Amino acid sequence: MTLEQILEALETxxxxxxxxxxxxxxxxxxxxxxxxxxxxxxxxKAGLAGRGIGRLYSHQAEAYDAVTRGGDIVxxxxxxxxxxxxxxxxxxxxxxxxxxxRALYLFPTKALSSDQVDELHGLVxxxxxxxxxxxxxxxxxxxARRTIRAAGHIxxxxxxxxxxxxxxxxxxxxxxxxxxxxxxxxxxxxxxxxFGSHLANVIRRLLxxxxxxxxxxxxxxxxxxxxxxxxxxxxxxxRPVTVxxxxxxxxxxxxxxxxxxxxxxxxxxxxxxxxREAVALAAExxxxxxxxxxxxxxRLSAELLTTYLQEDARRRGADPxxxxxxxxxxxxxxxxxxxxxxxxxxxxxxxATNALxxxxxxxxxxxxxxxxxxxxxASTWQQMGRAGRRGDLSLAVLVGTSAALDQxxxxxxxxxxxxxxxxxxxxPDNLLILASHLKCAAFELPMRxxxxxxxxxxxxxxxYLQEEHVLHHDGDAWHYIAEAYPxxxxxxxxxxxxNVVIIDTTDPAPRVIGEVDLAAAPAFVHEDAIYxxxxxxxxxxxxxxxxxxxxxxxxxVDYYTDAQIAVDVRxxxxxxxxxGAAHGEVVVTFRPTIFKKLKFATHENVGSGTIRLPETTLHxxxxxxxxxxxxxxSLRPDELQGALLGLAHALANVAPLYLMxxxxxxxxxxxxxxxxxxxxxxxxxxxxxxxxxxAERLFALGGELLAAARALVEACGCAEGCPSCVGPVLExxxxxxxxxxHLLKDARVPA
Amino acid sequence: MSPPDAPDGSTAxxxxxxxxxxxxxxxxxxxxxxxxxxxxHPPGPDRAAAPLIPRPTPARPASAAGDGVEVVRARYSLAHxxxxxxxxxxxxxxxxxxxxxxxxxxxxxxxxxxxxxGGTGTYVFLVGLxxxxxxxxxxxxxxxxxxxxxxxxxxxxxxxxxxxxxxVTFNGQRFDWPLLEARFVLARLRPTPxxxxxxxxHSARRLWHRxxxxxxxxxxxxxxLGAPRAGDIQGWEIPQVYVHYLRTADRGALEPxxxxxxxxxxxxxxxxxxxxxxxxxxxxxxGPIDWEGAGVLLGRRGDHAQAARCFExxxxxxxxxxxxxxxxxxxxxDRWRILRRCVREYRLMGAARRVRERWEKEVSRPPQRDRxxxxxxxxxxxxxxxxxxxxxxxxxxxxxxxxxRSLDGSRAPCPPLFVERLRRRVARLAAGGRR
Lengths: 751, 435
Hints:
The complex is a heterodimer of chains A (751) and B (435). Chain A folds into four domains: 3-27 and 251-417, Rossmann fold (3-Layer(aba) Sandwich), CATH 3.40.50; 33-244, P-loop containing nucleotide triphosphate hydrolases (Rossmann fold), CATH 3.40.50; 431-485; 567-591 and 614-746, no CATH class. Helix content of chain A is 36%, strand content 26%. Chain A has 24 helices and 32 strands. In chain A, strand 22 and strand 23 (511-517) form a beta hairpin. The two termini of chain A are 46 Å apart. Residues 747-751 of chain A have low confidence and may be disordered. Chain B has 435 residues and is α+β, with helices and mostly antiparallel strands. Chain B folds into three domains: 63-280, Ribonuclease H-like superfamily/Ribonuclease H (Nucleotidyltransferase, domain 5); 290-350, no CATH class; 362-435. Chain B is built from 15 helices and ten strands. In chain B, strands 1-6-5-4-7-8 form a six-stranded mixed β-sheet, with helices on both faces. In chain B, strands 2-3 form a two-stranded antiparallel ribbon. In chain B, strands 9-10 form a two-stranded antiparallel ribbon. Residues 1-21, 36-64 and 323-327 of chain B have low confidence and may be disordered. Chains A and B meet through helix 17, helix 18, strand 20, strand 21 and helix 19 of A and helix 1, helix 4 and helix 7 of B.
């Protein structure tokens, strides 16, 4: 069967057709070409022609022109639109014209850089010129490092290495910094939240060092589609950019479907397992030899999918080895083999996690099946974009799970199809992150009085660091005088530096099996907790709080533990308020109290214990909504409490739709009478110390967020409340769902 | 497990404290200083915690620091003793070893820094230079009194070093010099290149690490030079003392650091002489010496006869003493390594007879019947064959093969390739024919 026939079958067959909540067909888009720029070095022009490139896509030519004119650019294009040429072209051109030219390529991860480097190497080899490209990362051998520092034209690295390995030793990189002309930031959409806030500061440091050596590099940024590419790029690099977002690459006709598995338990709102449904849906595709990629949200579901798909292949008499998994944890060589298999067609189906999301070259497949909503509209489009051969028909299906966000998306297709993709938020001026990088900056070069580095509060931070014996002011500059190497204790990937290490002591040789954030430790690894790791239960024998170590033992019990943590929020400063909402700086206190042992399935309470751990506090930003008690006179205090809890649950569930964040990035607190507002209040706070700008965004959304929460609760098929909308009945009370809606109606949500 | 957001609306929240927007308060609450302030090294067991660090006092400008660079000069006469030797004797020993000490051109260098981590944020605040002059040695110490004066400090240093052609340091190739180079780049200066940089740490490691269990300068000073330090400031305290000085302008606090640096330089000279003595007159007398290390150093200098003598001595000593130092037993592998090194020196001398004697002597020791004994017998067989003693060669090879076979399946068997070569050798020699 051809893909056309399979689509027709899916659309009409009673087993599947009723479950599709959306089925949209999009026409093909032809390519827009532009001539190869006349100013391009003739060797480069010939090299392109040798690779069969006689014309450029319009965005590639536009990027070349904009870079040649000077100034910084951000190129925003969909998957597989030839974006690497947008930076390789101007960079190679400049190197061919001036051998002194140096460029720095930054990729968020090693895996993402390796493909781009391979492609660059291929192009350089085809040109037959001496352009030296070197990867400088944790794997680079010590003896090769010296050569790279002295002689590489293009240095490929990641932000972490730039932060700890290159900038603090910039005198060894004299040649690079003196002649640095281009900084390429690929996969810009990765740099959001904490990571982006750190990167923006690393860039500030990088530009300081460039100024010292007298170079003034241009930025060439590339991003997948996000809602605010200009703002995001400008925040990261601190300068205005030219946005190039009209892709000239062609795309074939495509069909996108949203699929909701049938309900199996109406009361609990439980639907058929999405993994099984995806396998059933794909049976025809695989039988028709349609090359298909599956995206799972966890490693476990990727493995399950692989197993089921292989079983299915065996039943059909097809080759199960043509079906493979792909996730973090596979060896690099395995990954390369799978990628090559996908390109050649030897691999017919791959069940991947987002490890395969972007940047990695696997060519274009014919169908993409997303098992579960990936969490953001942006990643949904990226994963769906994996299907779509130029000119040929392709299919993308999102299979919803029972999770709240999934249900919302599949029952509200317009959110996916009409809404702009999420905006990437960063907060380079997060006090903690900024102060960390000021230390690093002063380590790299004394910080002159009045030297720009972010916001105007700088002198106060510098004075604080002097008080703490980290800096010393002398003459007209702040000098680093502490002994520790500051970059080492600052991880770009997290705001807090401390974790609790989890050690399995079941076997004679203890083994580290994981880590939890210090802030989350009281809830998950208190003594006698049952900690789940890769599906295995572990009993926490001992938690050494001072040493940050939890000692666990593998067990097999019929209960789980649920820690009760009393959360208090105190407003330190209100930044703004409007229409019953506000945002500002808050301090959140977590006080562990007791834990309950609950039986699986029945959730019956079979015991409890006290948690003896210190209170922890989190200084961060939050947004809060006030629901004056006078407007809901009919609700008793316990009902109001349930309504607020239900609303907090619903808000926390819909917030990721707008934030490009993970639901775990936010916490919620409800108060019957907030000491700050004096009224019933729901507060959402950021779990990142100091916040990365999410709370401000939540405030700005205001009524829109409440409307989305109401839509979520109203659309939910459950009777009295379920984890997909307001939370379990046990928490919100038997009428929690109605009361939550009552609260939202009374608050006069704008439609 | 539910997220930790269980409500606690019933209990009264703490009273809303006055809104505190002070950035410093917020930074303190966030713990923004990190652990940068913590001492990099824990205090030694025999010392009270940081006695030299007075309570922090509010920073004030180091106004007494003048233009920010101070040069401290000290002179040591030839008669000044450091442990067993006077400075004059040390200089003689260095000269006797054939090292040209061009008075104006050789500089012994040691620095003190604000940290050990390296990178551009580590300042060199004290550079001590020792050189010949004024009827003894002169030590000039360049002290950075204000961080803002670093440019001038480095320029003065550059001018002083411009006359130097040879640097002598302890670990300077990896630490002091790269750090100074980074400082020069940061100050937009280029240091005058020196023709030779002798870093004594390499010789010190070869000669003393195994016998002392360390090659730290202070340990060698005590055990070899006979000059244990007493009352000296500990290296790890120095950065903290300097930071204290920067914040208080308490110049007196730096005196122990300056004294430490001078003693380091005198010790460096003593170490230089001690190395020279061993290398110019290996038989001694010296204190404890790792003879293998001495042999390696001499061999590299092309003094094969002395090198071989040192290796022989290392083998003799190993026979008498089962261990080099506590917990470091001397085993067959060590002996094999020294033997190979020894024989290599004989070969480089062109002394085939010595090679053969060496191997013959080795197998005449009480038999060990281990793989190394088998390998030594193989070498004997080769040497005998080269000396046209085919019968003797056959006997040695057969004995080696017997040992090799007896070790088969044991925990330390002979390498299969070796056994195979041995088997062919035995067969060939038994057939009485050369290839």
